[in-house]
Amino acid sequence: MLRGTRLVIFVLVLLTLALTLTTFLNDAYNPFYDAQMNRLNVPELDSRPVPANLGSSNKFAENEVIMGKLGNATARAELGRATWHLVHTMAARFPEYPTEQQQQSLLQFFHLLSSLYPCGDCAEEFQRLLKQNPPQVSSREAASQWACGIHNLVNKRLKKPQFDCSTVADHWKCGCADE
């Protein structure tokens, strides 16, 4: 029973992150935001090629949104904050030089999050953002900058303050034993 509860909480946190992603952004602090295209413009941060099986053709990219609308504004906001914390911490802890399998896992996570997020309208918005701004999973820095940029896109839509993505590495340290 405890394991099932933890899984539900984990999924809710992930879904909250997706909701939050769809609700924020102000391009003033996001050097990767292209205002004319209303999308992120994240350059490749290293020279390693992205494996051919990663990207928009990913089999998880077209998942349906499972959940309905989440009408409780308080629950929606709490879910969003928790999900963003999870996403940013995952990106900050992602390997600097991930294997192809690690890259595939993170990519799948984001697409599954967009399908399973407990707020259906938030999940739909996150799917739209994923389509316009595919997750960057080639390195820790790429994943962290992508997560920050997506979060800022959501913040912009929600008319919330933008986060300075140049400080993302300092902000999302998890306090883990290996740091």
Automatic annotation (TrEMBL):
Domain spans labelled ERV/ALR sulfhydryl oxidase: 72-172
Cofactor dependence: FAD
Alphabetical UniProt keywords: Disulfide bond, FAD, Flavoprotein, Oxidoreductase
Catalysed reactions listed for this entry: 2 R'C(R)SH + O2 = R'C(R)S-S(R)CR' + H2O2
UniProt-listed Enzyme Commission number(s): 1.8.3.2
PROSITE patterns with a match to the protein in the record: ERV_ALR
Name of the featured protein: Sulfhydryl oxidase
